[in-house]
Amino acid sequence: MTLTQNIAIVTGGASGLGLAITKKFVQSGIKTIIIGRNEENLTNLANELGELCQYYVFDLSNLSGIPGLIKTIADQYGHIDILVNNAGINSKKSFVEVSDEDFNKVIQTNLNSVFSVSREVTKYMLAAKQGCIINISSMAAQYGIPYVIGYTAAKTGIEGMTKAMAVELSPDGIRVNCVAPGFIKTNMSSKALDNDPARKQKVMSRTPMGRLGEPEDIAEAVYFLSSNAAKYITGAILPVDGGNSIGF
């Protein structure tokens, strides 16, 4: 599989699923720019992966700063070929306990920043008449999951935005797709499920493959959608979930 693109941005690229995506891109020879808030994590990963991994410390909830950030990246590297909108936060509370501030905080990072980053990156992709944007969704957009109303609203918005972007941008050479991870084995998810046996049993019982996914499974799907092997795919929502979204 050969990629014609060689400059990628991965938001939240130093931890969890973003880390696996960053490593896959770098291993494939793609210069990968990671954006995140934790400078220590970003620095350590860049040092580990070498010159193909560069980083910017930035809080994506600062929407007004996003145009300047993307311009800085484009000016430094000349072009942006791949954007992976992966960064996100979560807040687990019962519906009636979620304040407007709680809800808006999740929406700001998980949905509004995806719109703003995509809009700014698209300006450079339009000039080049090519580009690939991959958004990261969730099982929360495939069916109802309790206690994560803000996260669910944001990820459902991501999937709708993916389709609208694809229809508008694909005639200009920009493909837009979405990966919807199932339950993936990360430190955060493993801890959450191990502390909630009933929830873990429910997850496993409706996952036909009977196990959690690996972060690398998501990275491989993102890499595929970024590649020429997916050159006729746009507007797709790809579940990578061991069958969870269709499980009974």
From TrEMBL:
Protein's name in the database: Short-chain dehydrogenase/reductase SDR
CDD domains associated with the record: SDR_c
A Pfam family of this chain: adh_short_C2
SUPFAM superfamilies xref list: NAD(P)-binding Rossmann-fold domains
Family of the protein in this entry: Belongs to the short-chain dehydrogenases/reductases (SDR) family.
Listed transmembrane segments: none
Biological process terms in GO annotation: monocarboxylic acid metabolic process
